[in-house]
Amino acid sequence: MITDLASYDPERTYTTAAHDYDAALEQFWVFCARNTIERLLLQPGDRVLDVACGPGPAALRAAERVRPDGRVEGVDISEEMLTIARRHAHERGLDNVTFTRGDMDSLPYDTESFDAVTMVLGLFFAKDIVGTLRGLWRLVRPGGTLAITTLGPKFFYPMFDVFLDAVRAERPDLELSIPWQRTEDPDTLRTMLLDAGVPNPAVTDELTPMALPDPQAWWRIVRGTGIRRIEMEFDNDTSARIRRANEQWIADHELTSLVLGVNYATATKK
Fold this sequence. Notes:
Blueprint: H1 10-28, H2 30-38, E1 47-51, H3 57-66, E2 71-76, H4 79-92, E3 97-101, E4 114-120, H5 129-138, E5 140-151, H6 159-170, H7 186-195, E6 202-211, H8 215-223, H9 228-231, H10 236-252, E7 257-268
Parallel strand pairs: 1-2, 1-4, 2-3, 4-5
Antiparallel strand pairs: 5-7, 6-7
Helix pairs in contact: 1-4, 2-3, 6-10, 8-10
């Protein structure tokens, strides 16, 4: 098992998964965005940057908080994700948020130009995590806050382990790329922030129970999250076997909920 990005293409993965990601969004990801934004105590008039914004759950929530005079910029590498985010903004009547295609390490913004900079479930895709954090911190105004949210060690427990067992049964030779494990340890995340020049970061790790309404709901998670990259290694028949094995395990164990570990890190610039 490898945790670097050598065999993981985030843009391809999330472009492929964009519409499935959106289908799984409400039930499985909105709480991460909500919890991140609530930690910021945003005020009307604030300017917010949301990096690796995906279909926009954090950016849209921030846009609602900073109305009427505040602005939110959402940046993502996947144009398909951005198209969905723009649609959601239109549906909510939010005209104070802009979504732009861009790279997390080439952000065209002035130093100390945002009251808050957020990245929800995207840091582990950075080529140089410490360098990326340093660049995000540069954009925070004095008195402003950086908020980084990553996945913790309990990743859709126990089903991700069940999924990996089924994958290995089909392809014991397959090298699995799991980038989110790069930032799953809270102490490691805190050290990365300190190394990036972010002083006194507060890192909180939480375990969140998530309802699994039926066995099929698990496969919506597989196809609508970064797990999709592993599933993409298989042809349709093999993928179908893995899916059946997973859904049978859920039925046999009468599983009705999952556990998702999440790390919330914040730091305020003096």
